[in-house]
Specification:
The structure holds two protein chains of two kinds.
Chain A: H1 3-22, H2 36-43, H3 46-52, H4 57-91, H5 100-110, H6 127-130, H7 155-181, E1 196-198, H8 201-208, H9 214-229, H10 237-241, E2 244-246, E3 260-261, E4 267-276, E5 279-286, E6 293-295, H11 306-319, E7 326-332, H12 336-351, H13 357-365
Parallel strand pairs in A: 6-7
Antiparallel strand pairs in A: 1-2, 3-4, 4-5, 5-7
Chain B: H1 2-14, H2 19-25, H3 49-57, H4 61-64, H5 84-93, H6 99-123, H7 127-132, H8 137-148, E1 152-159, E2 162-169, H9 172-188, H10 196-208, H11 213-227
Antiparallel strand pairs in B: 1-2
Helix pairs in contact in B: 5-6, 6-10, 8-9, 8-10, 9-10
The chains are: A alpha+beta, B mainly alpha.
Chain lengths: 395, 237
Amino acid sequence: MSLIGIRQIIPAATKYFRYPLTIGTFQYCTRTTSDPSNVLNDLTDWETLNKKKKISKAMKAYLERAKEHDEFMKRQQFEYNIGKRHLANMMGEDPELFTQKDVERAIEYLFPSGIYDPAARPSMRPPEDVFPARKAAEFDEAGRPHHCLFYTGKPNFFKLLHDAADHLQQLYKYEDQVIRKKATPDPNGNLQLGGSMWVNKDQLEQLLVEKISDLEYDNFKVVMERLVSLPYSYRYKDFIEKFRKPLAVQKFALEIPKPNYDEEGRAYITTYECLRKKARGDVTIRSPGTGKITINKKDITYFDDVQSREQVLFPLIFTGMQNRVDVECNVEGGGPSGQSGAIRWGIAWGLRSFVDKDMLQQMQVAGLLTRDHRRRERKKPGQPGARKKPTWKKR
Amino acid sequence: MSNVLIFFYRRLKNSSFNSSTRTLSKLQIRNYAKATSFPDYYQNPIFRKEDQVKLIADSDLKNRATVPVKPPTVSETSSVYFDPLVNKVINHVMEKGNKRLARQLVEKAFENIKRKQIERYHLASTPEEKAKIELNPKDILYKAVENCKPLLQLQPIKRGGITYQVPGPITEKRSLFLAIKWLLETTDEKERTVHFPEQFAWELLEASNNTGKVVKRKQDLHRQCEANRAYAHYRWQ
C-alpha cells in the first residue's frame, strides 16, 4: 500500500472513531463541565447545607481530583503542541498550519514501522483522544447525588434501560389505543434500519462515560431489539437512532467516473489498483466492443484452469455485457485465483460507467462491487500454522 | 528499516520492467495487519440470476443494496454451469485443496454418465422407453443424493453404564453430508484398475435408480433405527 493510500485511509478512520465523541449534546452525558455554581444553585438542598455549613469530604476530594486532572491535561496539551511544532519543523512545513492529519503522515514517514498490530505502531494523538473523558461531579456540596440512579453505580446506563422500558410501555399503550379506535397504521411511519447497526460496546461506553460489562451490553441490545420490533417503534426514532451507527458508506452509486474517449471514438475507462490476495493489476474497458479479452497481452487462455476463466467472465455475464465491451488487463503477483479475483473486481468496478442504475444495485447485492481485502493470515509462533495447534497431549 | 530496504529492492528489481508495470510496483508494499474475515454485519451475496429475480419480484433489492455484502468466493459465479450442490460434491472430493483436480474428476464422472445414458437412449427401441431415460447428469446427481439422504440417525447415549444406539431425527444439513459422504465412501471400494470417475458415475446412476450399495446402507440405517425404537425415550430421559 502506498503512503498516499494510507493518508487517505487514516482520516476516515479517525473520523469514525471520533464519531461518538462529537455527540456532545447527548442527554445521558454529564461529562461536559458546565458551570459548577449553576448546578449547585439548582440542586443543592440549602437546608442541609445550612445545618452542616461545610463542604462534604466527597466534594472536597472531587474538587482536588478535578483540579489535578485539569492541570495534567493542560500539561499534556502543551507537550502535544510542542511535539507538533517539532514535527512540522522536521518536515519543513508551517507549524501553524500543521494538523493532526499531517502529524500522522510525518510519523509514518519519520518512524516507519513494520509492527504487525496497528495499535503498537508509533503514534502521536491529541491528549483528549488518549485519555478518556471523565464525569463531572455527580453530587452537590452536601454530598447528595443529583441522579436518582446514582447508587446503581452506573446511573447513565440504567437510565438508558429505564427509558427504553418506558418507551416500550408507551408503545404498548399506543398500540392498544389504535386498535380500540380501529384506525389503520400509518404507512409512511416505519423505521429504516437497514443501513446501520447498534453501536458496539466501546462506543456505548464512550456515549455513557461508564464502563459496562459484556452482559450489560447484551441486555442493552436485547431491550433495543425489542423496542425496534414493535410496529409503532418509529415514534421513538430519535431515541433509537442515537444508538445506531451507519454502516460503511456505499460509494458504488456516488462517484461513478465519466468514460474517456480514444482516437477511434470509443469510450474507455481504466481501473487502477485492482487488488486481491497478492495480485495487483489494472483493467481497461472499451465500450463498443466485441467481447475481446486481453490479459497480459494474451487472451483468456492466460489462465489454465476453468475456475479462473469463469471468474474473469463473471461480471461480464452477470451484466450481460460479454459481447458489448472489450477488456484489457495487466496483472502481476499472486497466483491464478488472486489474479482472476483482481481482474473480476476491476471489470465490475469499470462496468459501473456502462450499466444502468438497476444493474448497479444488482451488482451490489451480488457482492461484485465489494473489494475482497482478506489476506493470508500469518503463522503464529508456537504452533504449526495460523490457527493449527499441535496435537494435544496430556503429558 | 526492513520496509525501506524492500522498497529500494523493489525499485531496483523493477527498473528493467516496462513503464506501466513499474508505476504499479513503485508503490511501497507493507503487510498491514488486515482482517482475515469480513465483519458479521456483512450480508451473504445473492449472485445467481434466478435468486435475484425473486428479490426483484419482492421489491427487496433496493433495501438490500444499502447493506455491505461479502464478495462471492472464487468458485461461485452466476454462470449457468455453476451449481451449489455440484460445488459441494467437488469440495467433498477435494484433497489437500487441489480443487482443480477435484473439479476435473467430477466433470469426468458427469461425462461418463452422459455417455452411458446416451448409449442407453439409442439402444432403447420405443419412444416411451426413450422418454424415461434421464440424460442430464446434474439431474441424476440431484436424484441420487435425494435417494441417499437418511431420514433418521442413531446417536450413542450412555445410560447406566451401557451405551445405547438411540434413534432420532436428523437435520437437513447432516442428512446431505451423510448422503455425499456415503456416495464417496462407496466409490472408494473399487478395484485398482477402475478409475474414480467411472466408479462414481456408476454409483450415481445406481443411486438415482434407488438401487445400489448406498441406498442399501440408508435402508440398513432405517432398519436399525426401527429395531432400536424401544430406546427412543433415552433421548429425553
